[in-house]
Amino acid sequence: MQKGNVKALLPIGVFLVLYLGLGIIFEYALKIPMGFYNIPIVVAFLVALLVACLQNKSLNFDKKLELMGKGVGDKNIFTMILIFLEAGIFVGVVGRESAESVAYFMLSIIPAQFAVMVLFVVSCFVSLAMGTSVGTITLLTPIAVAVSRASGFDMSLCVGTIVGGSMFGDNLSFISDTTIAACNGQGCQMRDKFKENFFIALPAAIATIIVVLVMSLASEISGTVENDYNLVQIIPYLLVLIGGICGINVFLVLLIGIISGALIMLLTGSVAATDLLSNMGGGAAGMFETIVVTILVSAICALIREYGGFDALLSGIKKVFRGKKGGQIGMGALVGVLDIATANNTVAIVMANPIAKEIAKDYGISNKKAASILDTSSCIVQAILPYGAQMLVAISAVSELGGGISALDIIPKLFYPYFLLISSLIFIGFSREKKN
Per-block average pLDDT, block size 10, for the chain (436 residues)? Predict the structure, then answer.
């Protein structure tokens, strides 16, 4: 390992201070709704890139451009960008109405006593199918509010269950930004990461269901929630999910989802052909910021690595976290801290990927386990952030429906993220594995 250079980490520090500092001012001082998400993250990363370019005067600018080009041109980065685009097109094609259909279908056939459990199971399935926790919360929070008002279940319990369940799919889905970023950053197959991750997430989900059931059976409830539903539109999601688990190439899986989704949407009259093309473009456009951030972070990391920043960070982690288990905890802590600073689990993973790969190599941690730890740890932290998009979207959705709820009301009811943390630590503590 080369001699580390702590000063090379300055660009990351500049980004964190700029983004986190402005976010705090916007959110809490100026009281701007969704303040953190009014900060242009691309601009913050451009400033960090400028700082990186001004460092290390022994390299001329052309050499730095060459290094940045190699970082951005890495096969895994390019693959990640293509998958982001295809996943965006898929979501644009199939739309999100089918998610509501799943919820209303299950609520119509299961007794009201178990409505909160239904909300959790549905949010797990919908987020797994759609690959987005924020999208799941946006769609299902109104249903959670309706369940609370109709049955008498506590509002914070219903909403907290949705927020927690949404992270199940965010962590596991084959089309989730976090899964794509973690797998391609660590160079592992999505199917392998899914298998590694599933046995961490499943116990947490089961424990959550048990707790919710106990609380539900102790409550006096009444009323039902009914609405129209169309289960045919779920087929593309199921095809993508099954294809991913079976190990079919992710590009082919998403292509199957896009084609089947387009046919179903057209044949059912859910969308006109001209609108379908527009939706495809809109879905792809929704990924542009994520793609630009990925490119900028790759360029910054290439310079930081050349300057010795990663060697310094790795040396520091080794002093605190020893052994293979310590390396896994250190990896999770790294992405967790970055997520606290950025309030974006995908960005946190993209930033953590290079150093996490070095940790995995030095500690003998398999790439699938590294990807699993990065994704799981970031989702745990993201779920409970009071200023995270998931929490803010849930609070906003309740407010729009005439309700009143705060992050402090929801956080104690986020059972799944807490159980996922416990499950992750147990998995790290007791698991054994051979080196790649």
Answer: 75 84 81 72 89 90 92 80 83 72 77 87 86 81 84 88 93 87 89 92 96 85 67 81 78 88 86 87 84 86 85 79 87 87 81 87 91 94 84 80 81 94 92 55
